[in-house]
Amino acid sequence: MANDELIPLNIVIGDRNYRIKILPADEETVRKVLKTINDKILEYKTHFAGKDMQDYISMVLIWYATQLKENTSEIIGNDILDSILKMEKQLDEATSNV
C-alpha cells in the first residue's frame, strides 16, 4: 500500500482534534466508529459527572475493546478490525507527542 493511496481525515475524539490518513474505502467505517466513541463519551459524561475528558475516553476505550473482543468473530470482519487497530496505533502515536 502506497502512502498516496491514503486520504487525510480530520477526526475529533472527545474534545481533541486529530489528523489521520486512511484508505478511502475505510472512511465510512472510521466515521461510524468515531460516532460510536463520541456518543459513548457523552453517555459516560452524563453518568459520571466531575471526571475529566481523559477519564471518559479511557472508560470508552475499555468498553469498546471489550465489545470488540466479545463480538469480533460474530460481527466485525477482519478488515474492519484491522482498520480499528491501525486507528488505535495512529492515535497512540499522536497522543504520545502531546
Fraction in beta strands: 5-15%
Number of domains: 1
Task: Specify Rg, calculated over alpha carbons.
Answer: 14 Å
Strand order of the largest sheet: 1-2
* Alpha-beta content class: alpha+beta
Number of separate helices? 3
Largest sheet: 2 strands, antiparallel
Name the shape in a single word.
globular
Number of strands: 2
Features:
single chain; 98 residues; alpha+beta; two-stranded antiparallel ribbon; 60% helix; globular
What this model shows, in words?
The chain has 98 residues and is an alpha+beta fold. It has one domain (3-96). 60% of the residues lie in helices and 14% in strands. It has helices spanning 27-47, 53-71, 78-96, and strands at 7-13, 16-22. Strands 1-2 form a two-stranded antiparallel sheet. A hairpin with a 2-residue loop joins strand 1 and strand 2 (16-22). Helix 1 packs across helix 2. The mean pLDDT is 83.
Quick overview:
The protein is α+β, with helices and mostly antiparallel strands.
How are the SSEs ordered, and which strands pair?
Blueprint: E1 7-13, E2 16-22, H1 27-47, H2 53-71, H3 78-96
Antiparallel strand pairs: 1-2
Helix pairs in contact: 1-2
